[in-house]
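User: Structure please.
Assistant: Input sequence and predicted structure:
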Amino acid sequence: MAKSGMEMKIHDLSVAIYQGMLKWIDDEDVELRQEMSITNGDAYNFSRLTCSSHIGTHIDAPYHFTEGGATIDRLSLHDLIGEALVVEVDVEDRITAQELANIDFETYKRILFKTRNSELLTAEDFTKDYVSLDYSAAELLVQNGVRVVGIDYLSIEEFETDEHPVHKLLTGNDVIIIESLDLSAIEPGAYFMVALPLKLKGCDGAPARVVLVEF
């Protein structure tokens, strides 16, 4: 328990889910409709949500790109809860291994990348021109035993790819991927992270509420 008088600041990195929200270019639109309403004389308010498992701020389970990989309901909470490092990277297109040279991988096994994508995340339309993770950077993360990697746009991998090498390398090594993180107001540095996806049985991914905590 927190000591009496200790201030705790919580940063919500999750984007809201709503009809018309930013989504992957070939994903279906979110459908969120109110089916019952107290205002209309019903006994209670009740809504129905239809969306993909990778909408908004979401977590890719290893099963997303790796047959036999862990599904979203089988992810370790020890990986999803703990100290994380927010790294700000000033690049135009891809984050390479060179940009990761100063990261203390002995201490941090959860890495969140803040890039110029943070501005794109608030746009209404999807853009193919976003910052992604280069294969060399993904290799370095795997070699250093990183358990969770996150980024501030809808995919951690570049748009123009058919083979998805970055996703396959990460998921093939049981690295958990978090996408569409709102890091716009977050300063680089260490935080305590809580990233909890919906517990969808046997699923490849799920929307998540992701927060960073400062004590």
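Residues 9-18+53-214 form a domain with the Glucose Oxidase; domain 1 fold (CATH 3.50.30.50).
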